[in-house]
Amino acid sequence: GDSVTQMEGPVTLSEEAFLTINCTYTATGYPSLFWYVQYPGEGLQLLLKATKADDKGSNKGFEATYRKETTSFHLEKGSVQVSDSAVYFCALSGGGGFKTIFGAGTRLFVKA
Amino acid sequence: GAVVSQHPSRVICKSGTSVKIECRSLDFQATTMFWYRQFPKQSLMLMATSNEGSKATYEQGVEKDKFLINHASLTLSTLTVTSAHPEDSSFYICSAPGLQETQYFGPGTRLLVL
Known about the structure:
The complex is a heterodimer. Chain A is 0% helix and 51% strand. Chain A has no helices and twelve strands. In chain A, strands 2, 5, 6, 10, 11 and 12 form a six-stranded mixed beta sheet that branches. Chain A has a four-stranded antiparallel beta sheet with strand order 3-9-8-7, with no helix packed on it. Chain A is globular, with a radius of gyration of 13 Å. By secondary structure, chain B is mostly beta strands. Helix content of chain B is 0%, strand content 54%. Chain B contains no helices and eleven strands. In chain B, strand 4 and strand 5 form a beta hairpin.
C-alpha cells in the first residue's frame, strides 16, 4: 500500500541555519504531496503542497519539490527561526476517497 | 481559508463515563470528515471516516462500539468515546477534505480519563 517515510527527529538547529527534512513516498498512481506543520498543543496546518511531478510548493520561506524520479518531497528552508519549532508531517493523498497518509513526523527545535 | 472547529478543546472525565467530541466545518460543507488519534510524540492514526447520511467507515483495529461516530449534518460530525478508560486518553483530531485533496484540521481535543 501507499506509504510515507520521513527522517526521524528530533532535529535541533540554531537560528538562521539551513533546514532539510527528507521525505520519500511509495504510491500507486500520481498522488498529491503535502507538508503539514503542528505547533505545540494544536492541530495540523497545511504548510505547502504539490499536485504533480516537478511542482514546487512554497510558503513562509519553506519549499519542497515533487520529484517523481526519486519519489521524494524534501522540505527545505534557507534560514530557520525559533518560531519554526514544531512537528512537520509529510503526507500524500490520491486515488480518491480523500484519505491522507502521514509520515511519522519530524520534530524541529530551533535555538536562539 | 476553510475553518474546522472542535469542541471541547480539553476534557477530563472519570473512567466509565462517555465523552462526546464535536467537529464542525464553519464556512463550508463536508460530506466526509476524518477522525484521527495522536499519541504523544507520534503521528496521526486514522480511526474512521465519517460520512454524512450513512455509517462511518472504521479502520482496522478500531472498535466501532467504543468510538461511535455520527455525521448528523453537512457541517457536524461527532465522536463519542463510550465507557472511557485511561488507555483512551489521547489527542483526537478531526479533519475535512478541501480542494485538491488538502485536509483542513480541527485544533484537536485532548482527552484525559482518570
